[in-house]
């Protein structure tokens, strides 16, 4: 959950160079295969593997590739916002949110590999773009930054709902992952608004939705 607790007085103060190095480390851990260690085990481990046809496996892998890239974007967004957040407690909240998203990143990658496929080759591009958007949002103000988190998570929940409708009924492993991700993302959105995030107007959300379609269409196959 996003937290806006006041930073402790003895919290270490990082220099700009320290923070840039931390961002570089976060980028490598996000983009390199199997480099992010989840804090929670994948919900899929409790489910049996189903016998999917080749076409079904390819389709589910494509959907999970979209979700994986979405988590790459979330990592970059949070890291960019943390870099430019004005209040220490907001920066800390963004860093904590990024840590929670690592679970989703690892779960999606593992499922993609199980289905015999691979993450999108476009992930570095989308990471860079999302990092820039997050950094700009942080520069504008913390309320805008938190509002952007809420609006982004709303888009993610919509994608997850669509994917839950598309996956084969017998694919319990993928379904378990997506359902847990949906629950977490809804909580992130609610927490961001509770922390003072700005509620974005419908036209802004529509623009974000159109941009997200570029990501989903391109990463489904590559």
From TrEMBL:
Cofactor: record remark: Binds 2 iron ions per subunit.
EC nos: 1.14.99.60
Entry GO terms, CC: plasma membrane
Pathway(s) of this molecule: Cofactor biosynthesis; ubiquinone biosynthesis
PANTHER family (UniProt xref): 5-DEMETHOXYUBIQUINONE HYDROXYLASE, MITOCHONDRIAL, COENZYME Q10 BIOSYNTHESIS PROTEIN 7
Family under the similarity heading: Belongs to the COQ7 family.
Protein name (Swiss-Prot/TrEMBL): 3-demethoxyubiquinol 3-hydroxylase
Organism this protein belongs to: Aquipseudomonas alcaligenes
